[in-house]
Specification:
Mannose-Binding Protein A, Chain A, about 20% helix, disordered N terminus, single chain, 6-stranded mixed β-sheet, 3 helices, elongated, about 150 residues, alpha+beta
Length: about 150
């Protein structure tokens, strides 16, 4: 082989310039993309700022909500647990009548029936090209040692 490549996947965020309530925004994202935006790290938050934040001057819905009985925001709409947050410095997440979350630079709660623009995501591969001559077996071993797989 003249080189090897491996693919990792990351979220690409897409701003949708239509105003909808949170539930309709979620349905739109699930129909056209993967889901409303979810963030698991600072890297995800930075990708959102690069990909879509310029469209969110008034705040865009993201994929975080809770049902009326919950006191915390524990799960993203795509099903993963919340392990990373970016709450605004004075944001009170225990206000029980605001059960959906929107993002500007930071995150804030709001009434889910309000209409806002929103952020969806899709998975995109991040390819890594290794510019070394290797046999297939050598490329496989190298990629499994240094990345995930060939």
């Amino acid at each position: 082989l003249t080189g090897a490549a491996t693919a990792l996947f990351s979220r690409k965020y897409i701003a949708v310039d239509q105003k909808m309530n949170w539930t309709d925004a979620q349905a739109y994202c699930r129909n056209k993309y993967a889901d409303l935006a979810a963030f698991q790290s600072d890297d995800d938050q930075d990708r959102y700022k690069n990909d879509a934040k310029s469209h969110c001057n008034s705040g865009c819905w993201i994929g975080l909500s809770r049902n009326l009985k919950e006191k915390t925001f524990a799960q993203w709409s795509e099903g993963s647990n919340v392990t990373f947050t970016q709450w605004g410095s004075n944001e009170r997440t225990n206000t029980m009548n605001y059960n959906c979350v929107y993002a500007e630079d930071d995150w804030y709660t709001d009434d889910c029936n309000n209409v806002r623009t929103f952020i969806c995501y899709i998975w995109k591969p991040d390819l890594i090209v290794v510019k070394e001559l290797k046999t297939w077996e050598g490329a496989l071993k190298y990629c499994r040692t240094n990345y995930t797989d060939l």
